[in-house]
Amino acid sequence: MSLLIKYLSLCWFRNNPAELVPPTSFMWKTVAFYLISGIIVEGLISDPADGTLEVLLRTIMAFSSVAALLLVSKKWPYFNRLFTAIFVCENFIMTLATATEGLYFVMVMNKQEYSEEISIGIGALLVGWYLAIVSYILRQFFLYKTSLSVILAFSYFILTYGIPMLFMDI
């Protein structure tokens, strides 16, 4: 539990992800949570089969993106550390996004006038927070300048969410 709390502290821009060493089982539990929660969320939004495929594509893109970055920077042995740091925070944001969907449903059922605007606003805030977290993790891990880490975080977001989404639209 203390390891999870240390990883979740990254979401509030505390701790250094390079100093956190996850056991392999913790990393795979993080991946499993990502897959299960992603499949549930995507299954609620679209067709469950399409949602499952999209989440699998996102996972492959995430593994590939992190692997490519570590190979280029010659830090391959840190794969588990970096991937787990990103995925724990991504799981946290996904949990908040799921709660936002629940809130949206309640607001629609109660005929809240601005339910869609509130939901979109919270979603935009969560995406911004997600980009800031990934940027922080990359900056701490590689000692990059803030501007480079923001560009890499945005690139990671496009690769892991944008490309699978485009693929699903084909």
Strand and helix map with partners:
Layout: H1 2-8, H2 24-45, H3 48-72, H4 79-109, H5 115-142, H6 146-169
Helix pairs in contact: 2-3, 2-4, 3-6, 4-5, 5-6
Structural class: mainly alpha
> Total number of helical segments?
6
The number of distinct structural domains comes to 1
- What's the count of strands? 0
- Unreliable stretches (pLDDT < 50, length at least 5) are none
Q: Could you give the distance between the termini? A: 42 Å
Commentary on this structure:
There is one protein chain. The protein has about 170 residues and is mostly helical. It has one domain (about 20-170). Helices cover about 80% and strands about 0% of the residues. The chain is built from 6 helices and no strands. Helix 2 runs parallel beside helix 4, helix 3 (about 50-70) runs antiparallel to helix 6 (about 145-170) and helix 5 (about 115-140) packs across helix 6. The protein is globular and about 50 Å long.
What's this entry about, in short?
With 170 residues, the protein is mainly α. 81% of the residues lie in helices and 0% in strands.
Please describe the structure with a list of short key phrases separated by commas or semicolons:
170 residues, 81% helix
